[in-house]
Structure formats: structure tokens, C-alpha cells
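Here is this case:
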Amino acid sequence: MLNLIIFAVIAYILYSVFKSYSKYENYSKEAFKNFSVSHDSLKHSELGLFVALVAKVAKADGKVDALEAQLVGIMFDDIAAVFPEPQKTKQILKDIFNQEKQNINDTQDIAEELARAIKHDSAKQQQFIGFLIQLAFIDGEVSQSEEELLQIIAEALEFDPNAYHAIFDQFEQMMKNVSPKASIDDAYKLLGVSKNDDLKTVKKAYKKLIREYHPDIIASQGKGEAYMKEATAKTQEINQAYEMIEATFK
């Protein structure tokens, strides 16, 4: 009888731990329903710290290019949607991004603060590192400054070096296989527009597709590297097609 009672107690404890862990693991409205939205609270939250690191990686090569800006803007929408007061949250995330992109010298400090916040959670480590590597590759190549910054972040998060290099190498190989559209006709077909459409129409179609296929840091939870790689490749193809069509208007 005593053994049954002990087993029941242990089972209840394990269930409670699993339940709380599963809630902690997911970035959802339920997880953040009691979150008090302010600049300070967001800046030191897991996702706020992540946005700060995104800013530093995006600006590491000296500029935030058009596609990176497009993806970062969508990322603000994705993250803000899980917090109370999404519009207020989105504006604060923009402010954090704009402030943090001006300085890369504190990258290690912020990454270490994020490491403490996620308590060396390997799933979250991989999710964040994977997204940052994807962001660095989104313009087709990774600069030396971007790669150095990524390694600083990975080391601060105490992410497995072998896992880091495996993800990086996979993205590098994948991007080599993303070739520009063979012809302008292929580009029009990919964007779903015609040669008679004006640039405004083309840009609208482009933005719609980018939003549909962008790598989503929230939606990527539990989906693994394959989701991020597929989304990155598709995003790059869409961007190449848009650039090819855009050039015809110049």
C-alpha cells in the first residue's frame, strides 16, 4: 500500500513538472497572458533579448538590407502577437531593435543574459541559433563579421559547437543550391504576376509571398531545422525573382 502511495506521489510530481515545462517551452498567448508590457520588461524577456541579438546579426555587415528589414518587420508581428497589447509590444520591439543594432560590443553580455533566461534549454538554444544563422544567410552569403558574431552568441549560449557547425554547414550547402530563376518568365510565374503589372502590384505580390513563406520564430517551435531551411530557401528564391523583375523597371 505504501509503495502505491509513493508511486502516486511521484507520478503526480512528474506530471506537474511536465505540465509546467510544456507551458514554459511554448511561446503562446497563454504563456504571456499575465505579462506586464513595458520597455524594461520586454528588453529583459527571452524574446526581447533575442530581438536584440537579431539586431546585431542583421547589422553585423554594416547594413540591414531590404529583405532582412522585411523579415524583421514580420518577426515583430509574429512575436508581438503572443503578448498582451500587441501594437504597444511591436513598437517597443522596434525600439529595442533600433537601439541594439547601433552597438555590437555588448553582444556577449546580452547572449549570456539570454542563456540565463532560458536556463540552457537545448531546444530553445537550437531554435534561437538556427534562426540567427538563417538570418545571416538570407541575403545569400555570410560575411566574416556576421560569422564571428554568430560564434560569440553560440559560445555565450553554451550551444554545442558540433551542432552549431552542422547547422551552419547545412545552410551553407543549401544556399549553394538556391539558384536564380532561369528566366524572367520563371520569375513572373513564381511571384504570380504578369509583364503588364506595374511595380506596385509586383511589390505587393512579393510582400505577400515573403510573409507566407518567411521563417517564423514562433511557428518554428518543435518543427526542427527542416522547417527553417525550407523557409529560408523559398524566401531567397522569392527575393531573387523580385530583384530580377524589379530590374526591368530601372
